[in-house]
Amino acid sequence: MALPDVQGWVRARHRDEDHTARVERLRSALLAARAEVHDSSQSAWPELLGALCVAKGLRTLLVGTAVEAQRQRRAGLPAGVRLLDCETPADAWRQRLFGEVDAALTRARSGIADTGTLVLWCGPGEPRTLSLVPPVHVVLLATEAIHADLPTALQSEAWPQGLATNVVLASGPSKTADIQQTLAYGAHGPRQLVVVLLHPDNGAS
Amino acid sequence: MKPDRGRQAGEDFAWRSRQAVADTAQRVNFRSAMDFLQEKRRAQFTDEAELAQLRDLGAALRRYSLAHLPRLLEQLEARCRQNGIQVHWAETAAEANAIALDIAQRAGARRIVKGKSMVSEEVGFNHAMQAASISAVETDMGEFIVQLAGEAPSHIIMPAIHKTKRQIAALFAAKIPGAPYTEDVDALIQIGRQALRDEFERAELGLSGVNFAVAETGTLCLVENEGNGRMCTTLPRVHIAITGIEKVVERLEHVPPLLSLLTRSATGQSITTYVNLISGPRRAGERDGPEQVHLILVDNGRTQAYADAALRATLQCIRCGACMNHCPVYARIGGHAYGTTYPGPIGAIVSPHLLGLERTYPLAFASTLCGACSQVCPVRIPIPELLIQLRNAAQARASDGVAVLRGAGAARRPLVSAAWHAWSLLYGRGLLYGFGTWLMSRGRALAPVRQGAWTRCRTPLRPAPRRLRDLLRRGQQQRSH
Fold it and tell me: Is the dihedral of CA A171, A174, A178, A184 positive or negative?
């Protein structure tokens, strides 16, 4: 039996759109899924993060080393906000993860405009539980890394040639409709998903 | 093969159906839930041409996977092993449970948290663990509700679809320590969240299902909205994924079209909140994730369907539940009346392979053959045709040459068979048939007024005063004049 023509389907779905249109499609899909979307840039996001922490009353923020590498992030944070690194083994910060952490900050490897999806490439620098256990998940996403759809993301990033042990496609805050088909947020994962779009520094934000 | 057992199955199903139909409150729940899910799906597929193309592709991908099933399963096993996932094969439900129990005991697990898995329901996983004094807690909100109530899921996607928020409010207040009575859905979900957080923190083992197993990369794809699937596959030291052998696909690029069909058909979502792609336990340097990942591949009767060219289409199923959401029978009797893990049209064609026709043949007859199921099936399973094939097998003798299925002939009744035999003799002989119908129209006054189940809600059948051939002859004579 011949291999089905997946590429034909991908080509048929192809749409001509520019970068801005793609970003806007991602934004509207995320908003429809009740995520928050903010605009910032590669250099200015720590200030925005600081403002978000104040506005939301977030006092303890867990950060993976993937973001930790960006030393400038501390600059924008107000005095009351504490940063927790997860460099110790999981079991040592698991207690804190469930108890005292208000939010986690991670990066998304890429985005998918069609479905408003963040590609979370979990690994040493970005533990899986960061985007899962705390009630608020703040994600940084570079707008250049937004693909039109999932087949394109999978192809252009060559996923079949090297997946992380745990890849999560996240498309909004955790939710359920298991009680009388009524949508409720924050079922088991984060109640709030806050997406910070990082536009190129020289471009408009 | 025992006819008495077959009759028992028929009577049990009829009894459960009557009970369900008489339960007005439950029928209201199901009707509104079905309307909701149908509307959600419809809103996703506004472009008929796009839907048709995608369904063609989905069906082709599933048929391709099944056509190459042995090779793909071997490739999946090899790639998973390379990724550090331990692969186990279970021919029966009991074997699947024994493998899981062995893994749990070796890991010293006392508590298991479970993500939604219909295969674990199918094999009776919770019961098997309880028998070994290991607690198995359902963490999908719907499954959690159903487990608290001591019931079984009534729908494969929305397990607690038969319950109202009032019933759930009362259940939580009675069963969860410290939970207040509230009918606010947000508050109820938060009660469930809190109750299960403790379980997630403490469980040594997590169990999940699998939506697609990718042979090329050794990846387990798991679809969910709540995040409980992520919890179960991330926090405990050991993760067991359990799934049917039919869930394998060859390439990662085969997942997007099937995923799109699955989530849009099931809940009317363009994608679920979380899609997990799991390709192994935690690697060196990683700070969390399970230390062991096991994959249990379950047969449990699937090879019987696989062996028959037509029935093999049963295994194309991606478990979206659209067939039950659109089934007029399911909407009226609900999921529990079927008495099987998988209810609705898909349950009627899957269950005979898992449990034998002798226990499940009534389900093949519980259909009007209206075809709504096959019209919405994202992978184009010809469900009505398969129902007819199962009906035939249930009434066939082994010597009739129909595919030999477990429990074939269970619905066979000597009197019914004799009646059909007589009819076929009569119908095949024009003169004899003409005489027979003449006799019947003459004797129409003798037709009984009570005709068993038929006259319970219908007027009695009586032969026409004139035979069709007489009416036709008269019509021809009138036209020619």
Answer: negative
Interchain CB distance below 8 Å, A189 and B285: no
Spatial contact of B278 and B222, defined as CB atoms under 8 Å apart: yes
Nearest chain A alpha carbon to B155: A178
d(CA B65, CA A1) in angstroms, rounded, equals 10
Q: Of how many residues is chain A composed?
A: 205
Asked if A188 and B163 come within 8 Å (Cβ–Cβ), the reply is no
Q: Does A9 touch chain B (CB under 8 A)?
A: yes
> Could you read off the pLDDT of B422-448 as tens digits, one per residue?
999 989 998 999 999 999 999 999 999
Q: Which residues of B touch A189 (CB under 8 A)?
A: 226-227, 230-231, 273-274
What region does B101 belong to: left with phi over 0, alpha with psi -120 to 50, or beta? alpha
d(CA B156, CA B266): 10
pTM score, whole prediction: 0.93
Out of A5, A12, A132, name the one closest to residue B230 (CB).
A132
Measured between CB atoms, which of B186, B273, B278 is closest to A170? B273
Are A175 and A119 within 8 A, CB to CB? no
Closest CA to A84 of A148, A130, A38, A41: A130
| Cβ–Cβ < 8 Å for A148, A116 | no
Of residues B226, B267, B279, nearest to A165 (C-beta): B279
Tens of pLDDT, residues B270-289: 999 999 999 999 999 898 99
pLDDT at A79: 74
Q: Which of residues 358-397 of B touch A (CB under 8 A)?
A: none
Scan residues 91-120 of A and list those with Cβ closer than 8 Å to B. Answer: 94, 98, 114-115, 117
Per the DSSP assignment, residues forming a β-bridge with B162 are none
Residue B1 banded pLDDT, cuts 50, 70, 90: very low
Give mean pLDDT, residues A35-60.
Answer: 92
Alpha helices (H) in chain A, listed in sequence order: 6-13, 19-32, 45-56, 65-68, 90-99, 150-156
